[in-house]
Amino acid sequence: MPDLEDLERRVRRAEDQLELLRLEGAYAFLYDSGDGKAWADLFTEDGVYSGRRLAGMGEPNFIQGRANLAKFCETDRVSCVHMLNLPHFSIDGDTATARIHLQHRGKSIDEYGRPVQTQAVGYYDVSYRRTDEGWRIHRRVTTFYDRRVHIAYGYEPAIADLDVPPLPESGEYPYRDSRG
Description:
By secondary structure, the chain is an alpha+beta fold. It has helices at residues 4-33, 36-40, 66-74; strands at 43-51, 62-64, 79-84, 88-92, 95-109, 115-131, 134-151. It has a single domain (4-151), classed as Nuclear Transport Factor 2, Chain: A (Roll), CATH 3.10.450. Helices cover 24% and strands 41% of the residues. The chain starts with a helix and ends in a 29-residue tail after the last strand.
């Protein structure tokens, strides 16, 4: 027969895991719904959402504090859906960490009126803190495994400029490779 102390410890651990799962379920639902305040309330007061910079990437997002987090969610022009896998939690008292694999699909309209579709696969590394409000996200870092952006430029009815530019004074033909 397990002693009462062991039973209390196991029940608390199960309750912690359930609360962290509830928090992660709310994370994707609230962000995708555009409910910035409720989404930001999932973080600690000084909570951070950021991207992870990998070689060849531009500067990633870095958003800190609930007011900034709410603004980040509410101003996202992308209609999206996050599909999160089950987290792999490690709980240590009043702190925890997790890795959560994800898929993301989004669509928007760019500044020229063209449809843009985004697909991403990656994962979140997350740290949590137990607060007076319950478990909250302290830091969340997105790492992309694969990210694709598709822009439909559409049909242009006007004929392209077919004139060949004159040879520059240097006597060398221009060369501009924009395949980046």
